[in-house]
Write a structure and sequence with these properties.
mainly alpha, single chain, about 55% helix
Length: about 250
């Protein structure tokens, strides 16, 4: 069975998880979160200053909607199932109809709240997690290369002084073990962002145009008798209201 997301991969793959591709996808998700969050922080400061002229408020809403779409795309790194778009299609053409519809949707304000959270709290946390789970073991793993580049000595993590190649390779071994050991805790980090626009816009979670996925083989789904078949069911065995998909 192929894992759909990083949490399923942790459960299904177990000891094989550190050797697969999900840890790399998780690290890419966190790294991209740092970049997007830093850019959102800078844009937020500009828009807050522009809001003094009553221009930044609609731009802030527009930025929240745009970032919500980007986050739904970014979630594909840790979840193979596409996140549905929670926004409805405007009934009338034009920017005014689109803006009025978006301003009245709860999904828009949810995305704006996520922008504020990402720009102030989430991206620094992602940066700390990456530094501890990837940066520190990666520095130890690169000890022989750093020593060869310096020629005489190198200081790892600003605390450990390495002057010989045996010590450098020992530090690299410790870094490799630490990197493998930290892949599982690292995999628990991205799904924790359950309040992101992508997580809040799963099918059935809002009033948008989300499309539910078709039932899988062997699943049970509610059956709706047709008008032509309603008379037939009165003379046969009573229907249970459920049918099994092939």
């Amino acid at each position: 069975m192929e894992a759909r997301d990083v949490r399923q991969a942790l459960v299904l793959q177990r000891w094989r998880y550190p050797l697969g591709g999900w840890p790399w996808r998780t690290a890419a998700y966190l790294a991209s979160g740092v970049v997007v969050g830093a850019l959102a922080c800078a844009a937020l400061l500009v828009l807050l200053l522009a809001s003094l002229l009553l221009v930044g408020i609609p731009l802030l809403l527009l930025g929240g909607v745009a970032l919500g779409g980007a986050e739904r795309a970014r979630l594909r790194l840790v979840d193979r199932l596409p996140a549905a778009d929670p926004h409805r299609v405007p009934a009338a053409p034009g920017l005014g109809a689109w803006a009025r519809l978006r301003a009245g949707e709860r999904a828009t304000w949810r995305e704006l709240a996520y922008v504020l959270l990402l720009a102030t709290v989430l991206w620094p946390l992602d940066a700390v997690v990456l530094a501890l789970a990837v940066g520190a073991p990666g520095t130890l793993l690169a000890a022989p290369v750093l020593l060869a580049a310096d020629g005489h000595e190198t200081k790892l993590l600003k605390t450990v002084l390495v002057t010989t190649y045996p010590a450098a390779f020992a530090a690299a071994a410790v870094g490799a073990l630490a990197l493998l050991a930290l892949t599982c805790p690292l995999g628990c980090t991205p799904p924790g962002a359950a309040g992101s626009p992508g997580r809040c816009s799963r099918p059935g979670s809002g009033t948008g145009s989300a499309r539910s996925s078709p039932p899988g083989p062997g699943s049970w789904t509610p059956s709706r008798p047709s008008a032509a078949g309603s008379s037939a069911t009165s003379t046969t065995a009573p229907s249970t209201g459920w049918s099994r998909s092939p």
